[in-house]
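Q: Could you fold this chain for me?
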Amino acid sequence: MLDSYFKISERGSTVGREVRGGLVTFFTMAYIVALNPLIIGLAKDADGKFIGGGDAPNLPLVAAMTALMAGILTILMGVVGNYPLALATGLGLNTFVAVGIASKMTWADAMGLVVLEGLIITVLVLTGFRTAVFKAVPAQLKIAISVGIGLFIALIGLVDAGFVRRTSSGPVPVTLGDGGTLVGWPIIVFAFGLFLTIGLMVKRTKAAILIGIVLATALAVIIETTLKIGPNFDGKNVNPKGWGLNVPAMPKDIVATPDFSLFGQFNLFGSLDRIPLITVILLVFTLLLSDFFDTVGTVTAIGHEAGLIDKDGNIPNNDRILLVDSIAAAAGGAGSISSNTSYIESASGVGEGARTGLASVVTGICFLLTTFLAPLVAIIPYEAATPALVIVGFLMMTQIKSIDWDDYGIAIPAFLTVILMPFTYNISVGIGAGFVTHVVIRYIQGRRKDVHPLLLLVSGLFMIYFLTSPINAWVG
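A: Sure. Below is the predicted structure, expressed as structure tokens.
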């Protein structure tokens, strides 16, 4: 029954691979359950209130809802979209909501804008517009998007592991480790996990990525239990030799009772009582554009990595996949945890062999269990999970050979797409730069007919996105 519904054999996979892939995807993105509360849960709205309306932060409340929504929406993606793609609160989007939106209004008003954006993007899917835009993008630009995301997630892995860090001063923005030197036991755990995974992959070992995460986590627990290293930041002090995000110590309590009372705390049009209509439109537009094209990039990248892309660069069940993702945006706002979106970390599960929605169902079940087992998930430090991102980044980068580097109308936009995603830490910026450059070059070449009208429209919207600051200044 599973094979028939999810088309497991048809896509060259097995139930075992799907389960392993689903577990790997969960382990590589489980950090969102701990990280989202630190972004959303610690920010104050315009009235000085924390999310939920309290005078003090309630991080378990945010963590429980983050895990619940991720679980439900990821299972929905698996069952409806039949695609190995997991969803959760969008990083970057949650920061924008916390800093750029909630600071201007109440949390309920801010989440109302997120719900509104999700409803708009759902209408765009139901009318066929979002799918049409997806198909209007040249196939080789879709490959460039996938390659760019591969480089991006590899950088995310290196940064989260502490292998690459920001510099406090000097001519370059990032450097190796702490001041040009790798320090601390956590980086040893990262190196161990990375080389272990590489070795297992070279030996064609099944579950290489999953084994790497589990054994690296075990090593991390042993080191922390023995040496008591602690976090790299405890809220007051910075310890460059500490663990990133989670300290891998065995928790006192493994099971905790979740509280889902955040659900439904949104006010759809309440923001109009606080800020002008034009500002509301620009905020929703920024959310919409980022959500729209981050997903296009992620879905494309996963499809290329899984070998599910046809000759025109399209994917199976495209409409259903985009519909679930659009519903997720509104659902995230309804759950008061910011917009939920597709996660590129799903590529780690694909790297483990996932090809169908069964993997997403497995990931979703893990997230639902996390609502009760949040303390157990907190064992996994960044340093144990991030080697998977570096490995998957390599796998996705191998597609670069399929780009026609002799055609400047493709090569230059592809180049900008690939480098700007990691350099700006933003998928949408890379996509937008590639689209705009492609249109400009094709017009210079006198090949206007090669530019799809929808791509021309989207490029114009991206120009508005890039010029948001001057436009804001102009309209006051």
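A (continued): Residues 2-475 form one domain.
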